[in-house]
# Entry
Amino acid sequence: MLRAVDVTIARGGRVVLEGVDLEVHQGRILGLLGPSGSGKTSLVRVLALLDRPRSGHVELDGQVVTGTRFQVPAGLRRRIGLVLQHPRRAVDPRLTVGEIIAEPLLAAGVRRPDAQVGEVADLVQLGRHLLPRRPDEVSDGQLQRATLARALVGQPRYLLLDEATASLDAASTAMFAQVVRDAREVQDLGVLTVGHDRELFEAWCDEVADLRRLS
# Structure
């Protein structure tokens, strides 16, 4: 389980979330609703171990995590995958799609990641013929599925989606939601997706919560 325990987050001296308790369970998709500026992204960054809360803590599979980023052992960091809202801001445009997906494997010292890259591309329904292309040669939906594949290639236990469908059209959103469901089944993932589209979340998620009721 990935948990936020009594988490308070401040930005620029202003408290944006106070006393939040949240649980992400393996095998379940949790949708967290909140309007713009409500602190959704701030909470995702804390759960992704990128930022430290003002108070409270994150627990990862029963272990309290006190550090952030490279202060956290690599084995713990790799249990969490993250997909951001804007895929084109989240990738190096000089890399091919296949190289983008392979980044976590190369960072972990895997010398020949082609097999794993191909498998996860299949999982997210990203045709292997797209792997040699650069970001400007694929659609937004295809590139977002590539960033999803990058988050999944290391086989994390938890997947955090920070408004990951906000920049996609309706068809791309539907496909993205479906491949996340498929990945949840294959990898027994716990998924947290944050956004403001209640109708989408009620169709996509196992459970929907409102951030405003958690703090």
Summary: The chain has a mean pLDDT of 95. The radius of gyration is 17 Å. The CA atoms of residues 50 and 69 lie 5 Å apart.
